[in-house]
Each structure stands twice: as structure tokens, then as C-alpha cells.
Design a protein that fits this description.
Strand content: 5-15%
Oligomer: single chain
Radius of gyration: 30 Å
Number of strands: 15
Structural class: alpha/beta
Length: about 550
């Protein structure tokens, strides 16, 4: 009975020893056979035997000793093992050479000494590096079960309302819904002084002089921790990483909302904390960075297959490493799943879950809102972050031609972004600047009012993972025009629930705007059809599918 207890108590060490004995026996047998039977030089023999023995060791330790049945990431573990094998092989060969040629020991005795030395080294590497994640996660799960039944999630996002954008809308919905379901939710995001000043719906809780702020949304259960985005890049990422690293041990789920701005600090923190993480990828940050900072004009699909300068390639490498380390990846469209798979990620770990779009709550009718917002004529609305590929410049440049066809047209652009000043300058030089209005990002309720008061919605974009804002426009009842790119074609069916045009074909865009302004029956048919196909973007469906992934 006592023997059985001792065996159970030290089972891991016994199994490690048995696996080691088997690997060592393999090494000795092969060394003897290769040296004595095949006549190979003993250094070459021991190196070959060492490699085979460590492959035996890897599979026995992984699947038997540590009972790590996960096949996902096995090649990465092999990579780690290869580093151990390589360094151990060099040490083994060097030690053998020294003990045999300089000390004068018989080569088999020298091998005993080196095998023991390498075994100690290998044990330390297995215990504290290779299988650290498995042990740490099991211990963390056991500890959480003992201390609390409440599940905790950390949502790491680059933007959050009132900033406009898909990740912001998605993170807000997810945080609110999980809080209602009893989860403890913490959101970590970036923000700047301007965005903070717009937080009328937030109550400031505390401020960290080093660059982080904590908020809690009124009438909600989740917390927000903000990192000042005005910091230089290194300090900004360091602050973000520090927050994630501090919070990670207590979390059941860590969920990043992009592959670089949030994903890179999350990946590093989770690696050091031996935690797995999930990631949602809604675009290619490397491409966006190349467009904004390096003058790259290639379309996103072309970008995937070209080589660029080392800075862009470094960003790509970081993106790929983060995606590769994630336990699961969620994309909001089949298009994005295909793109991420092209980065070398196994398709089996990529799950497509369409985003939910909040149900618009609008007080006041269309005519009343137009008076309140001081809008008149035919309102063409476009909303989004002000970026080179969002098509705002093209809409401004199209106004003279549109004005001839639609005399009462007004172009209304709502958004913020790095290209805002350039767009303001472009508008100021337009001969129809009095009919073009650029409004900074608005809170959701006011944004919906502008959508309700408009005549059509245009998203003339060169790229879109899944067009959140197009779906919102459809729900409100706006007829929409967008481009045949990215995930747009998974939402809009041409001339059925909206109009699709080619990006770069301004004439086609102009004809679509003119048609919607003049053919009211066609516009009505599009809006009616649009509302019929929006069930797959429901909040309940999205939350249930996300929880299955976790």
C-alpha cells in the first residue's frame, strides 16, 4: 500500500526517468552499432544516435510523461526541442571529444558521463520551458476553481467607443453581453486626450501618471483600462504589455482584437505568463502600416504576395508570430479566414463568426431629425476612420460631377483618423466645400440620428474585413453603396440588398449614387431586402458562437 502511494506521488518523476532510460538505451545501442558494426567515427555515431534518442524522448515525454495530448502546436514544441537537442548535441560531442581525446577515457564511459550531464540539462529545459505552459495552465485552472466560480475575461483592443471602428463596436458589445451573463470583464485599450474628453458616458475612476487610466462605464459591470496612445511607440507598447502581464494570471480568457497593436503585447505577456490567448483578426495591420507610414499603394490582396523593406517585413513577421501563437483565431468573414491562412496559420484553428451589430435606438422621426441636425437636400453619408483607402478623397473629388446630376446634394463624412487634416485641406479647396461637411467621430446615439436623417450610405473603400457600418446602415433602412472588396461581398448582394461597385471606378460610383437619388422605388426595394438577411448578424448568435470557441 505504501509502495503504491509512493509510486503515485512520484509518478511524474518515475515516468520521466523511464522515458529517459529508453532514450538513453536507444542512444547507446545506436552508438555501438554505428561505431562497431558500421565503422563510423565515434563523434558522428554519437551525434546521429543523440538525434534519434531525443526524438524518442520528445514523443515519450510529451504524450506519456506529461500527458500533453494537444497536437496543435506540436511543431513549435518540436522547434523548442530542436534547440535543446542542438545545444545538447554540441555539448555532448564537445564533452565526448574532450573526455576521449584529452582525458583518455574509453568512449562508452565518456558517454555515460555526458549522458548524465545532458539529462540534467534536458530535465531543466523540459520542466521550466517546454512543458511550462501545460503545467501552468492546469495549475491556474485548479486554483480558479477553488477560489471563484466567476469566469474572467480580458478584452485587449486597440480602440473602444467613442472611437469609431469595427473593433470598438465589437468589443463594447462583447464586454456588455458577457457582463450581463455573469462574467467579470476588463477591457484594455488605447486612447488619446481628445477621445477621453468625449467620454460623457464614463465615470473616471483613477489615473496613473505613467500613462494608464481606469474607467468604469456607468450602469455597467465592466472596467476599462486605457493606455495613452500619444506615448512613443516603445513606451506605448510597454505600458500596454505591463497591464496585460499584471492582469493575465487571474484571467480565464485573454482575447486580443488585432495582431499587432493589441496582439503583440498580449502574445508576449501570455508567453511569459504561460497563458494561452485568443485573437480576433479583422484586417492586416502590416498592410495598413505600410500604407500609412511607408508609402505603399498596393491593394491588400497584392500586398500579401510581395516583398518590401525590412521594416514592413518585420511587421509581417510580428503579425505572423502572434497569429501562430494564438490558441484560436476568430475572423468576421470567410475572406479574412482565407487571408490569415495565407500567413501560414492552420485553417483548423481559424473560426469565422460574423459580427453582431447593435439594434439602433433612435428618438424622433426622419423629418424631425433633419431639422434638429440642420440637414437638407439629398444627404449622401459616409462614415469611417479617415485612412487612405476609405475613399473619402474620391467622394470629395466627385462632388462637381454629382452636383450637376443632383443639384441639392450634400456630402456628409463622419470620422476621425490620421488623414483627417489632409481631408480637411482637400475639402477647403473644393468648389463645393459649402455642400461638404466633415464631422468628428460621434457617440453611437448621435451617429444613428445622422444615419436616420440621410438618404443613402456610401462606403467607397479599398478594403474591408466585414463592414460593420454597412450592416448598421441596412438595419436603420438606408440604401447602401459599397465596393466589391474583402468581406463586403458577404454582406451586400449587388442590386438585391445594395449596390456593389469596383474600387477605383469613380464613374460607376457616380452612376450608383445618381440612380439611388432618382429611382426611389429601386432604393425602397434594396432597403426592404436588406432587412430580410440580417439575422446572421444578431447579438445572441455571435455571443453563443464566441463562447463555444472559448
Amino acid at each position: 500500500m505504501l509502495l503504491i502511494k509512493l509510486l503515485n506521488k512520484y509518478k511524474l518523476f518515475i515516468k520521466f526517468g523511464i522515458a529517459g532510460v529508453v532514450a538513453t538505451a536507444t542512444h547507446f545501442v545506436l552508438l555501438f552499432v554505428l561505431t562497431e558494426v558500421f565503422g563510423l567515427w565515434y563523434i558522428l555515431s554519437t551525434s546521429l544516435a543523440f538525434l534519434v534518442a531525443f526524438m524518442v524522448s520528445f514523443f515519450s515525454q510529451k504524450f506519456w510523461t506529461f500527458r500533453d495530448k494537444e497536437k496543435e502546436g506540436i511543431y513549435k514544441q518540436m522547434g523548442g526541442y530542436f534547440l535543446v537537442v542542438s545545444s545538447g548535441m554540441v555539448a555532448n560531442a564537445a564533452g565526448m571529444f574532450f573526455l576521449v581525446d584529452y582525458v583518455g577515457l574509453y568512449y562508452l564511459i565518456a558517454q555515460v558521463i555526458m549522458s548524465a550531464s545532458v539529462a540534467v540539462y534536458s530535465f531543466l529545459m523540459y520542466r521550466f520551458i517546454i512543458f511550462k505552459r501545460v503545467r501552468a495552465e492546469e495549475a491556474a485552472k485548479k486554483n480558479r476553481k477553488k477560489t471563484s466560480s466567476t469566469k474572467k475575461i480580458l478584452i485587449a483592443t486597440p480602440i473602444f467607443p467613442p472611437t469609431i471602428g469595427g473593433p470598438a463596436t465589437y468589443s463594447k458589445i462583447l464586454a456588455s453581453e458577457l457582463s450581463e451573463r455573469g462574467w467579470e470583464v476588463v477591457v484594455v485599450t488605447y486612447s488619446n486626450k481628445e477621445t477621453k474628453n468625449k467620454k460623457s458616458s464614463y465615470a473616471k475612476a483613477s489615473e496613473d501618471k505613467q500613462g494608464t487610466n481606469k474607467f468604469k462605464i456607468q450602469n455597467s459591470k465592466f472596467k476599462i483600462i486605457e493606455v495613452d496612445s500619444r506615448l512613443n511607440m516603445i513606451r506605448k507598447y510597454w505600458m500596454y504589455f505591463r497591464v496585460i502581464f499584471r492582469l493575465a494570471p487571474d484571467m480565464d480568457v485573454i482575447y486580443a482584437q488585432d495582431a499587432v497593436n493589441a496582439g503583440l503585447p498580449v502574445c508576449l505577456a501570455c508567453y511569459l505568463r504561460a497563458k494561452s490567448f485568443f485573437i480576433k483578426i479583422t484586417g492586416d495591420y502590416a498592410w495598413e502600416h505600410a500604407q500609412e507610414c511607408h508609402g505603399v499603394n498596393d491593394r491588400i490582396d497584392d500586398f500579401q504576395n510581395k516583398k518590401y523593406n525590412y521594416k514592413i517585413e518585420l511587421m509581417r513577421y510580428a503579425r505572423n508570430r502572434v497569429a501562430g501563437h494564438a490558441k484560436k483565431i476568430i475572423t468576421p468573414s470567410e475572406y479574412l479566414k482565407s487571408m490569415v491562412a495565407g500567413w501560414g496559420v492552420n485553417e483548423d484553428k481559424i473560426q469565422v463568426i460574423y459580427n453582431a451589430v447593435p439594434q439602433a435606438k433612435i428618438s424622433g422621426g426622419r423629418n424631425e431629425l433633419r431639422k434638429t441636425l440642420k440637414l437638407s437636400g439629398t444627404i449622401v453619408l459616409s462614415i469611417g476612420r479617415i485612412l487612405p483607402w476609405k475613399g473619402f478623397n474620391e467622394l470629395v473629388d466627385l462632388m462637381p460631377a454629382l452636383k450637376k446630376e443632383i443639384p441639392d446634394i450634400h456630402l456628409l463624412i463622419i470620422g476621425d483618423g490620421p488623414n483627417r487634416q489632409a481631408l480637411e485641406s482637400r475639402i477647403s479647396k473644393s468648389e463645393h466645400k459649402d455642400h461638404i461637411q466633415l464631422i468628428p467621430g460621434l457617440e453611437q446615439a448621435l451617429l444613428w440620428q445622422y444615419m436616420e436623417a440621410s438618404d443613402m450610405f456610401v462606403l467607397y473603400t479599398g478594403y474591408e474585413g466585414l463592414p460593420h457600418i454597412v450592416i448598421e446602415a441596412m438595419m436603420i433602412g438606408l440604401s447602401v453603396i459599397t465596393t466589391r472588396v474583402g468581406g463586403n461581398i458577404e454582406v451586400v448582394k449587388n442590386k438585391d440588398n445594395g449596390i456593389l461597385v469596383d474600387y477605383g471606378n469613380e464613374k460607376e460610383l457616380m452612376n450608383a449614387i445618381v440612380r439611388l437619388s432618382k429611382d426611389k422605388e429601386f432604393s425602397r426595394k434594396l432597403t426592404e431586402n436588406a432587412k430580410l438577411g440580417l439575422s446572421k448578424f444578431s447579438k445572441e448568435r455571435m455571443i453563443e458562437e464566441v463562447l463555444k470557441v472559448f
